[in-house]
Amino acid sequence: MYYKVAKASEYLAITGAGINDVKLLKKAWILPGQSCTVFDLSPVNYTFEVQAMSAEKLPFILPAIFTIGPRMDDMKSLELYAKLMSTHDRLSNHVKELVQGVIEGETRVLAASMTMEQIFRGTKEFKREVFDKVQLELNQFGLLIYNANVKQLVDVPGHEYFSYLGQKTQMEAANQAKIDVSEAKMKGEIGSKLRQGQTVQNAAKIDAETKILSTQRQGEGMKEEIKVRSEVKVFENAREAEVAEANAELAMKKAALTRDAQVAEVEAAKTVAIREAELQKEVERMNALTMTEKLKAEFLTKASVEYDIKVQEANWELYKKQKEAEAIFYEKQKEAEAKKAIAEAELYARQQAAEGELYAKKKEAEGLIALGSAQATYVTTLLQSVGGNYHALRDYLMINNGMFQHIAKINADAVRGLQPKISVWTNGNGNEGDNNKAMKEASEYLVITGAGIDDVKLVKKAWILPGQSCTAFDLSPVNYTFEVQAMSAEKLPFVLPAIFTIGPRADDIKSLELYAKLMTTHDKLSHHVRELVQGVIEGETRVLAASMTMEQIFRGTKEFKREVFDKVQLELNQFGLVIYNANVKQLVDVPGHEYFSYLGQKTQMEAANQAKIDVSEAKMKGEIGSKLREGQTVQNAAKIDAETKILSTQRHGEGMKEEIRVRSEVKVFENAREAEVAEANAELAMKKAGLTKDAQMAEVEAAKAVALREAELQQMVEKMNALTMTEKLKAEFLSKASVEYETKVQEANWELYKKQKEAEAIFYEKQKEAEAKKAIAEAELYARQQAAEGELYAKKKEAEGLIALGSAQATYVTTLLQSVGGNYHALRDYLMINNGMFQDIAKINAEAVRGLQPKISVWTNGNGNEGDHNNKAMKEVAGVYQMLPPLFKTVQEQTGMLPPSWMGTLSTDSPIDHSPNSHT
Q1: Distances from the Cα of 690 to the Cαs of 255, 277, 868, in angstroms?
Q2: How many structural domains does the chain have?
Q3: Residue 402 DSSP SS3
Q4: Around 368, how many Cα atoms within 13 Å sit in the side-chain half-sphere?
Q5: Closest-CA residue to 155 (of 482, 487, 483, 537)
Q6: Coil vs helix vs strand at 820
Q7: What does the longest C-alpha to C-alpha distance in the chain come to?
Q8: Chain centroid offset of residue 93 CA
Q9: Residue spans with biased composition (Polar residues) (predicted)?
Q10: Domain that residue 20 falls in
Q11: pTM value?
């Protein structure tokens, strides 16, 4: 018994014990009684020269390269290949003969039904037909054609059909070159003669044009002279009209300025008179005010003033007493209102608190009902998903809630810090391999197969575990240089040098997996990979070239390159390869078929004859140019004479126009200056009138200002005289007796008034005090009533909240109980799991064992004499099994839950039996 791992491009074919037919795997344990064969998936190039015959009985050789390998994306095909082909080496003569027989048979049958021209013209369709029919035959062996490169058809010795076609096309090109040379000579001689005739014709044409132009210039000079005389007369009349208009405007301006000056003088005189009248009115008003003040001072006595003072003092005392009583009453009233407000606030606070408690209870009840409904739905759904198995549901909830991890963490915390004495006994030899880790450079990938991997795995770094195989492959592209020999649609052979830069498609994991499976067994610079790439490129290039003429290929090199690029890339995709760059160089002649050389000779002869035509053209241009310059000289002389006469006449007319224009402008300027002088005189008269008005106004205002100030001061003097007269009269006519009498009378009146007001104040104070006591008593009664109302309201709301919470909890429990089918034990377990009771129990147990110092012995019964394969493969499994019994024992003790039966059983006095000898 041993463990076998296939590489990325390999498969294992296993037969024997426990397998009905054959089993294909990437990795497997090979048991006693089983046989294992490794076969490679990478394709192989098969090169043939198929001899066939067309419908016209013309034999030919068809060189071909087929890239063939197992169909790796179909397990049925891989099983066929494993059964029929895996016993032979894929490069053996047996496999090559089988493939060659299929290809030659289908190719001959198809060629016999087509003419040679149909085969050559429809190379692409012919290749597709052969491809499809051969693939149909290879399907029964589980083989796939990855690429088929059908090269250029070749003559059979003694039947040189393609050579004759090539010679025919070559001779046609040579004869066409001779025709083109003769055509170029003919064009050169005819062109020279044509240029001589054109020279004579152009000279006669220039003489005629010179005479016509001279006559035209003389007529133009006479016309210009007549035109200038008429324009001068019209201009003179226009200027005289402008002078007459300027004279009229000057007379009108003088009349207007005279009128404005006279109006300004009249306005100045009247304005001074109006201002003098206004100031006189203000003086009279001030004199009237002065007389009024003088009369008031004479008739005002001191007695009336003192009486008013005493009355004000008595009113003040009464007002003071009233305000003090009102203040006391206001204070008592506000105190009562404050007590009442406090009582209302306390009642409102109690009500709001009770409302809040009730709202919280109701929302808690609603949340509990919603939670119960959601949890019931959750539990019901889970219970239905596990087929009504309650134990499976319980295990799921404990696993999903991380209870085992939580308990394990609690147990770990409990034993952390212990100092146990542990003895471990095992029979393993521990000789592991050293190559368990792999890392590669930036341009490389690792392809890993084996344990834990279904097919292949591509990574940049990995631990290579026992039972795994690792292969590294490079992503960097490689340059492939070829000289592709092809033939155009006219049967003209040519060489197409090309350089292709090709490598794995690094940005696509699927392509990299294809490359890893098909190509990693070969070095990217090996002959096998080069043949594969060259076969794809040559095949697509030849097929495309056969459908185009030589001119189409040469003119459309860019499109030709794009077509080749796209078709080659389509074929390379199935190997996970990408074309990074394709450089198609210049087309080259095949020796003996110098098509491009003949084209060069034709171009060279055309250039020589064109040179002859250019010489004749230059001579013609020289003679015609000379004659043209002579004619142009005569024409220009006549033109200059005419232009000189015209210009002289124009200048004379312009001089006369300028003289008339200056005279008229001088007259207009003279009138404008006279108008400005008249305007200045009018402005001077207006300014003089204004200044005279301002001076007179200032004199009047100055005189009246003195009179106004004199009246104001006289008013003040009269006021002071009145006050002086009052004091003097009091001193002379008021005797002491009368003063004392009046004083006693005033005092008696004052005392009476004072007593009355004091009594009124006391009464007012007592009255307000009584009202305040009444308000305080009412406020205290209201506060007691509100406090009692608040207590009652709070008790009622607390009772309502308790009822709502009880109802919600009852609904929650009823809903959960219905969801588990009325199973009380299931409900209890769910509540304990959901509320974390098991974790709390584990924490309590952990606290109980914290700080212990146990002695632990672990025994295994492996014999240690097994082979290296068993030791490496089973060591990790045995280690995992040795860790499970203590964990399951703890879970069983704390939760009452047993592990699945397939993991072993727990006894009352021993852990789970998981030793290697307990399983077969």
Answers
A1: 21, 20, 137
A2: 2
A3: coil
A4: 17
A5: 487
A6: coil
A7: 183
A8: 62
A9: 904-920
A10: 1-37
A11: 0.34
